[in-house]
């Protein structure tokens, strides 16, 4: 089968969708022909490292990580598609790449699949702050999803988000997978301070400031804890200043981005718990990475991040209130053996990317059969 994958964000960008496209594309390419269409990031990068061909679209950059792809204005994208002749197109976006993919699919009578990963309205509000423009962009997200033959989402939370935008089309949950490093889990020791960890983009909609406010509350009772913040982003410097301002200068450590997965695994292993208060994330890969290392996650109840887990069994939940989250942390600080026990079971909640690829291939085959039956 020939599969064309479209993404409005891909390497060398940083984020969850980039890694999803990489890992799914890598797995699919073991048995199928895969071509990935992605923005040009206007900086040197070796696309030959991938087991699939990457075609770069012209793009406009807004930040080092945010690029607006313009595939309709890129002759190479059109030529590559015509030569490749895919059996199915799969968009991991509801942006310009999805619109381009949908038009190609309709013209050539092949299925168009799309997967919703991101709470788009959060991103639009964060970047634009102009309500009527945000509403226009949300309507375009809905239109592009409606024009796909099949819409998938990485969680029920993401389906609910798309429903809130007005999309009535039936949707299918296909969760993210995990590619195992296969490293030995570290034995948790309790001599050092209770260690919390955040890994990801450092940006307002990840709720990091809320996490710092929670720890300010914790420190009113206990100060024997550390919070490692791993990653980079536009608000890193402001959070560093804020942490010092509220008296957490000795407790919060900003490491910067760590790309080496083995080194990151060691950091996961050394933490008692991931501390992930994002209500934006729909199915965060970093929680799965932590789980493989035997580290459970403390997340906000009834969010996309909490869907896979069971409180006190494979993870920990807290209400979305800084005092209640602080109380939960204080409770876990007194029960480190329980935290380690839950961490030992945390990896039971995910499957490998090979299984996720099989799920998508079944969907592709179903939609191809429908097209042939029309």
Question: Could you explain the architecture of this structure?
Answer:
This protein has helices spanning 16-28, 75-84, 96-108, 120-127, 131-146, 156-165, 208-218, 236-245, 261-270, 285-292, 322-333, 336-345, 353-373, and strands spanning 2-6, 33-39, 53-57, 59-61, 67-69, 88-91, 112-116, 150-153, 171-173, 194-199, 225-230, 252-256, 273-276, 297-300, 316-318. Helix 1 crosses helix 13, helix 4 (120-127) runs antiparallel to helix 5 and helix 7 packs across helix 11 (322-333). With 374 residues, the chain is of the alpha/beta class. Helix 10 links the parallel strand 13 (273-276) and strand 14 (297-300). The longest helix has 21 residues, at 353-373. The chain has 2 domains: 2-177 and 352-373, Rossmann fold (3-Layer(aba) Sandwich), CATH 3.40.50.2000; 194-349, 3-Layer(aba) Sandwich (Rossmann fold).
């Amino acid at each position: 089968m020939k599969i064309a994958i479209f993404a409005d964000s891909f390497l060398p960008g940083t984020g969850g969708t980039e890694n999803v496209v990489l890992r799914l594309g890598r797995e699919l390419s073991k048995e199928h022909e895969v071509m990935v269409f992605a923005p040009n990031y206007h900086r040197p990068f070796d696309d030959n490292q991938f087991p699939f061909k990457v075609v770069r679209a012209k793009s406009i950059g807004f930040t080092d990580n945010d690029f607006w792809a313009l595939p309709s204005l890129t002759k190479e994208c059109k030529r590559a598609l015509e030569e490749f002749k895919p059996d199915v197109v799969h968009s991991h976006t509801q942006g310009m790449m999805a619109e381009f993919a949908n038009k190609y699919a309709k013209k050539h009578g092949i299925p168009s699949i799309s997967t919703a990963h991101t709470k788009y309205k959060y991103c639009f509000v964060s970047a634009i702050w102009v309500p009527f423009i945000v509403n226009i962009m949300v309507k375009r997200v809905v239109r592009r999803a409606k024009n796909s033959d099949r819409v998938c989402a990485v969680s029920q939370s993401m389906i609910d988000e798309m429903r809130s935008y007005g999309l009535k089309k039936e949707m299918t949950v296909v969760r993210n997978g995990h590619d195992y490093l296969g490293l030995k889990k570290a034995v948790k020791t309790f001599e050092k301070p209770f260690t919390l960890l955040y890994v990801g983009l450092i940006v307002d909609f990840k709720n990091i400031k809320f996490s710092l406010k929670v720890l300010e509350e914790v420190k009113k009772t206990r100060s024997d804890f550390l919070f490692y913040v791993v990653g980079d982003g536009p608000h890193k410097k402001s959070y560093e200043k804020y942490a010092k301002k509220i008296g957490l200068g000795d407790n919060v450590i900003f490491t910067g981005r760590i790309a080496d997965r083995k080194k990151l695994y060691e950091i996961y292993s050394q933490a008692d718990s991931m501390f992930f208060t994002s209500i934006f994330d729909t199915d965060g890969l970093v929680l799965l990475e932590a789980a493989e290392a035997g580290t459970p996650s403390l997340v906000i109840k009834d969010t996309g991040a909490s869907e896979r887990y069971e409180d006190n069994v494979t993870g920990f939940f807290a209400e979305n209130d800084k005092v209640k989250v602080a109380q939960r942390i204080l409770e876990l600080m007194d029960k480190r053996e329980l935290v380690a026990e839950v961490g030992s079971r945390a990896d039971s909640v995910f499957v490998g990317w090979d299984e996720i690829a099989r799920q998508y291939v079944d969907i592709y085959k179903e939609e191809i059969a429908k097209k042939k039956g029309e």
